[in-house]
Amino acid sequence: MLIALAVILPALAGRPKIGLALGGGGAKGAAEVGVLKVLEEAGIHVDYIAGTSIGSIVGGLYASGYSAKELETMFQTQEWISLLTDRKASLSNEPYTTVDGVTYIFGFPVIDRNIGGFGMMRGGKIEEVLDSMASVRGCKDFENLRIPFRCVAADIRTAKEIVLSKGNISKAMRASMAIPGIFKPVKRDDYMLVDGGMLNNLPVDVCRAMGADIVIAVDLQQNEQLPRKKTDVSAFSGIASLFGFGGILEWITNRPDILKYRENCKQADIYIHPYLPDVDASSFGNKNAARMIRAGEEAARRHWEALLKLKAD
Fold first, then answer.
1. Among 5, 55, 93, 115, fewest CB within 10 Å belongs to which?
2. Is pLDDT at 13 greater than 80 in this prediction?
3. Residues 174, 126 contacting (CB under 8 angstroms)
């Protein structure tokens, strides 16, 4: 990679534009915060950010002006499980109760007759928190962000990748992390949007399209998470009801997400891959967050010399 950068940098007029592609991975997004800490330490000015799923949340807040240290505090102190599940704290001691058409088990909403379906959580709490955090920095919309930002979602009606770049930032982040079968899709314009990781979980190409000369990619995907065979359907039953049988069959057979993922890994100029062997997308909590942040720092430091070459003057 150092050789590649040595060839690229002299060819660029002035300071190269740096893009940051942040991949999806649920709780593992804490590792991306560790990478941001090292980028700041190296004195790198990020010009463009593209994120998918949790990468859209980390990227969107960073683009709003939050520092890596502030994001670290957020990951270590925020009650993520309650936020992501819309848990009602006042019902946390109730084994089973129904309020306003929503059935709760120990405060967790499991059936919402207002929107239909089992496990279709609104994601309202996380959107409210994100909206509040962005608004505090004067960045309620994409147009107000300190750093140009894009986040990736997928339209369940057409199974097409949708890159969000306008309007309310919190709703866009919420759409990008709407895991099919768990969170209710987000209606935006003519689209019904769900987690962008279904089609593009490491948006290096989006950063490049924004104008980045050099792209730093943070990949949270662990090798064992990729299906060994194209026909491995065990992990994707939750989306069948959204795309329909024909759509899901085509998606599983062709796996466009894996094809794009592998190509984006190759196209990254600096590819940072935190080692997270014993955590998964649901591993929220203070101790896990601290470990993953350290893993992100360690992974970024392995590219220290390459990063220093990109230091802003």
1. 93
2. no
3. yes
Q: Which residues contact 167 (CB under 8 A, 6 or more apart)?
A: 141, 142, 188
For residues 249 and 252, what is the distance between their CA atoms, to the nearest angstrom? 5
pLDDT over threshold 60, residue 223: yes
Amino acid at 69: K
- Judge whether 80 and 30 are in contact, CB under 8 Å: no
- pLDDT bin (cut points 50, 70, 90) of residue 282 is low
Closest CA to 217 of 15, 59, 107: 59
Tokens of residue 10, six digits? 């002299």
Q: To the nearest 10°, report the CA torsion of 105, 233, 116, 82.
A: 40
The active-site residue, picked from 47, 53, 205, 213, is 53
- Backbone dihedral angles phi then psi of residue 219, each to the nearest 5 degrees: -105, 120
Catalytic, out of 195, 205, 213, 269: 195
Active-site annotation holds for 195: yes
Whole-Å CA distances, 246 to 30, 44, 158, 231, 296: 36, 46, 12, 14, 39
Asked whether residue 242 carries a pLDDT value surpassing 50, the answer given is no
Q: Count CA atoms closer than 13 A to 227's CA, side-chain side.
A: 17
- Asked if the model's pLDDT at residue 265 lies above 90, the reply is yes
- Element (DSSP H or E) covering residue 137: none
Single out the residue of 4, 17, 25, 2 nearest to residue 296, CA to CA: 25
**The pLDDT of residue 55 is above 90:** yes
* Most confident region among 28-32, 203-207, 258-262 by mean pLDDT: 203-207
Asked if residue 187 has pLDDT above 90, the reply is: no
DSSP string, 161-197: EEEE-SSBHHHHHHHHT--TTTBPPEEETTEEEEEGG
